Amino acid sequence: MKQLIPIFVLAVILSACARLDDNLYDPDSNISEYQLDEYTGEISVHLDSSYDISADRIHQFTVTSDDNGDKATIHAVYIGDVSAIATGRVILYCHGNRDHMDYFWPRAKLLAHVGGKYGVGVLLFDYRGYGLSSGKPSESGLYADTRAVLSWLEEQGLSDERLIMYGFSMGTAPATELTAHPGALKPSKLILEAPFASAEVMLQDSTKLALPGSYLLNLKIDNAQEIKRVQQPFLWMHGREDDFLSIKTHGEVVYKNYRGEYRQAERIDGAGHSDIPMVMGFDRYLQTLNEFITTH
Known about the structure:
- The chain is α/β, with parallel strands linked by helices and 296 residues long.
- The chain has helices at 7-17, 20-23, 101-111, 139-155, 172-180, 199-207, 223-226, 247-257, 276-280, 282-295; strands at residues 26-27, 58-67, 70-79, 90-94, 98-99, 121-125, 163-168, 189-193, 234-239, 263-268.
- The termini are far apart.
């Protein structure tokens, strides 16, 4: 006879999993200003002074994001010469699910050294509910907020062929979505670091239950399906020791499903979920990105 899960056990599981939608987001909004280099909390990457960014290359600004009538003020920072956006390459960095821009600031500084110091412009922003950005995080909000900063880049003169979309962890969702379904700008290249296959795979990995994700989630995020629509050159990086988003059940699935013109895989031995630049070494990391951006 088929063994059934006791009703009270299933009820507990469902109660816990019903909060998984919100658990995707781990924002810190208890700040009054962005401190960037002066931030004393935990940060994503430790850099020496050679990666410092001069004050005249740091531009903080806000945009309004409209998610079907739910408006939010989105805070962002651009590294580079704003007047050069009309002629140079720009990386739009969609950060992961925790904290706020101060935590990810060193990663943006590192990216500003692709192709040499200030070799590319870099735009970092906080989704709604993160840092000083108003509103509450949501899946549709991720996409709306990313569209809002893309519109700002377009207003500054950025064109499709000079836009590179970069998503890390949770940020791979808006990066993939807006490369597959572009709006104001159509990215010329897509870089995904430690992507997840879908919200459903995340659920099944965490609960070990073979239940449809729709039973427990409202999230529709599905990078593994959306990547099939991406035709632009695609660089995928994933740590072989990633114990948060398994390279086997997440990253490899996304990579395999890509059907576009060029794909490149960087499977990093010894790297976990958040330490790929460190394990690769900054020189190799930057060289890999630069060669992908300039060659393909």
